[in-house]
Input
Amino acid sequence: MSITELHVASPEPVRHHILSVLVENKAGVLARVAGLFSRRGFNIFSLTVAPTDDERFSRITMVVDVESAPLEQIVNQLDKLINVVTISQLAPHEAVERELLLATVAVGPAERSQVIELVGVFGAQVVNVGLARLTVMLAGRPEKLDDFERLLEDYELVELQRSGRVALPKLDRPTGAPAGLPA
Amino acid sequence: MRLTGAQALIKSLEMQGTEVMFGLPGGAILPVYDPIIDSSIRHILVRHEQGAGHMAEGYALATGRPGVAIVTSGPGATNIVTPLANAYMDSTPLVVISGQVATSSIGSDAFQECDITGVTMGITKHNWLVTDPADLPRTVAAAFHVATTGRPGPVLIDVPKDVSQGSMEWYWPESIADLDLPGYNPVTVGDPALIRRAAELLLTAERPVIYAGGGILKAQAYDALLELAERTGIPVVTTLMARGAFPDSHPLCLGMPGMHGNYTAVTAMQRSDLLIALGSRFDDRVTGRVDAFAPEAKVIHVDIDPAELGKVRRPDVGVAGDCRLVIEAMLEALDGLGLGGRGASGSNGNSPAGSAASARPDLAPWWGRIHRWQEDFPYHYEQSDGGAIKPQMVVETLRDLSPVDTVVASGVGQHQMWASQYWRYDYPRTWINSGGAGTMGFSVPAAIGAKVGRPDRTVWAIDGDGCFQMTAQELVTASAEQIPVKVAILNNAYLGMVRQWQEMFYEERYSEVYLSPDLPDYVKWAEAMGCVGLRCESPEEVAPAVEKANAIDDRPVVIDFRTDAFEKVFPMVPAGASNDGIVVHPSQEDRPR
Ligand SMILES: Cc1ncc(C[n+]2csc(CCOP(=O)(O)OP(=O)(O)O)c2C)c(N)n1
Ligand SMILES: [Mg+2]
Output
């Protein structure tokens, strides 16, 4: 996938919704979920899978396009998969979302310091240094990653990868109001 | 007790109460065929695995019990893909066992290897690849549980050869908790608050219609539906999947809605102010153009599958739950609102003063309109003496000369619509057809499966000539196994339904729809398959042939009815059009709507 395609696929705030899906750790589970989405014409912006602390289950975090189908329909169809145990819905404003970005940038002597400066401004990290290339990493809110990615495009991007987001519900503040930053 | 995987598999099927299975052996399933010799389960050897699948479906639809089929790996398994897809569309409980290459060979393109769990993922409710013989009893029990509960559907268990050849210590899961299904909790009981709201809404409607679907049959909700209809006096339409769920001869029954539905059923829904959808799913063949469907109607939608609520049409009250339980709860709620007892039939005479029911609108004006549509636009055809046999006349003759509880299994096409329109379905599970998928070739094997499940009943397959040619070989199975089904071929020498569309929508440009009336020779073919073969070429031969066929009970019978090739199915809502654009029989066109 090219970088521009990544951009096209990056979610607009209003269009996406996050589903945190606990699934049985069984062969073919991911194929069942992916098959359901393609069969029913639901779009996914991103999808991550990881084991949980209970080895019987894995967690799929997916950002779904709620313009392709009503959220309720997506959730109800997903819930019919026998291997899906629970589904938590997270509206973007109720969630703490994080994502990881890795990018390799081709840099001449002049650009090298500019990119390192950008890394500093964003609180990113240089994780690998080559002769004429730098690999940088940024973990943070997806929108922050979007900004960083846009600025990196001024340079010669060799490769860029994003992990897709993971999310947890925001916590209640001790005062009773919903927790704000840091989020 | 040590058992082989194969023995454990067959014993598990016995534990589930399986009385019959339909199948055909091959390499990967060979170990499982050995213990079948000693089993109480009757095995019916089919001639093609598609036949096994449709027989299992016919058995399930006629009895309400899950159908079981067993096939080998690779081509055996892919041959049963169509029945799985068909059962998935029609929510028919089916358990298919397939052989698989040994676990060590999976992924190596071994002989007759096919990733059948991958292929059938989207057309089964769930499927399992068993990798340890010790998992077999639990998997079989889980498969039956999943297939038969919630929204029923087909499941597949793929059993590698080393798993059936391996050994295990026998056990049987004690309870559902032992089935290892942490993500499967189907809803059954509806939300009482929603049910009460539905009951209140029902009492405010001036033009209500009950839109009964296949879910009524799955939930065995026919008695509850009858009581709801009789107590409220609300008319009932029965979809193609629900024919027989409410008696056709009941005065409240308006018949089948949809593309080739009864004018009254279609129009009553269109003009309705409240649709009470019970186990129906707003299929495109029922709604016509969705945004023009029943534009003034509020909707109560009851379905066991929560994903059906709002999938096509947003309900005003959506209740997820088992149809029977929800209707029964609705009847109780109606009691509380003052509409108790039977025989109220739309009048408020016996409702306590001041109750919600006493303020209920009178349905008499609505019934007045309905009765006028029934009088002006009944199903219609014209049989002339000495003319070609009209297919509708064949269906009516079959109906009149066969027992009232005859089971009818149909194929897909014009003959299917006539079989639905012109038979009188007064009993649940007497109509067996392929609704959602529209699978040609369904009827012969489905009729055989139905007859195996209901040997006491007369079973007629009403088939098309095109459909018959797809699965006719299963009549060899029927003869060999002494399953005396009867087949009426409405032989119009055409893929008639396609021909009808080409006539009406493609300016009579007929492309690849002609079949010939006498190639094959159906009588000889029937005889070659061990059946009695009869032929009818003129209207006066129809009744004697049917009587003759009904008198034969020791072998299958096939009648080749040479029917009018040019007859079309009416009414018809053209694909994609609004139901308001329903095309009636030409002789009814001038009548004011
Ligand atoms: C397996 C399959 N192939 C194609 C179709 C499309 N199709 C629907 S009805 C029909 C014609 C059926 O012909 P016949 O069995 O003679 O029935 P008739 O309409 O003439 O009564 C066809 C080809 C189908 N439904 N199923
Ligand atoms: Mg035909």
Observations:
- The pocket of magnesium ion (ligand 2) is lined by residues B 464-466, 492, 494-496 (CB under 6 Å).
- Chain A has two domains: 13-94, 97-167.
